[in-house]
Design goal:
46% of the residues lie in helices and 18% in strands. It is α+β, with helices and mostly antiparallel strands and 250 residues long. The strands form 3 sheets. Strands 2-3-8-4 form a 4-stranded antiparallel sheet.
Amino acid sequence: MAESEDLQDPKVATLRSDVTVELVRASAADSDVVFSARVSTQGEQTLAAAMAGDDATDKDRGLINYLMRDRHGSPFEHNSMTFYVQAPIFVFREFMRHRIASYNEESGRYKELDGVFYTPGPDRKLVQDGKPGAYVFLDGTPEQFDLVTKEIEQTVTVAYASYQRMLDAGIAREVARVVLPVAIYSSMYVTMNARALMNFLSLRTKREGTHFPSYPQREIEMVAELMEHHFAELMPLTFESFNANGRVAP
């Protein structure tokens, strides 16, 4: 039937309200921080001890907390985490302001872009109250939410249909893509170490009790929250110390 074909047609614009973050590769543990910090006094023996798989000790916890508290940052760089992220392009443009990671994003020059676009979910605050630098976001009314949803759906549907017509006419992908709005989803691999990730989290999450409060756009915070979950599992002592010291990157 025509209706079911439309639902499955990859050339028809579709909407989603979430993001995807997957940890695809990691070499990251609290022991990486410990052995790299202790090499200044013990040389290569610190690496041997870490590779032996010794459990973390109170001294290790204390050392990590000391490094975090006094902002001795380089020991937190001897590790690596690679994430696969799907999010709207406007999130990626904010993300790439952080020049402390390695990025590889899908290319609209070399592949046909999927017609998946972002629309805010019902819990997304819609109204800005106050001036830039001193404002809060408030819940929108049901009428405002319906308006946002309707306008986004209409806009992306028209834009993606225009994109497809140009491709069908033989227009190069790099030219046809200029009609697509920043709500379209992209995907990338991003690789960073724990120090860089803590810097990112300190700026792109809002938490009570932080030394330097941040007010991120909700969509990039959604990405940061998922990355933080993986970080907490990989390096629990480092994550604990990060929070205990006001979520300030060392």
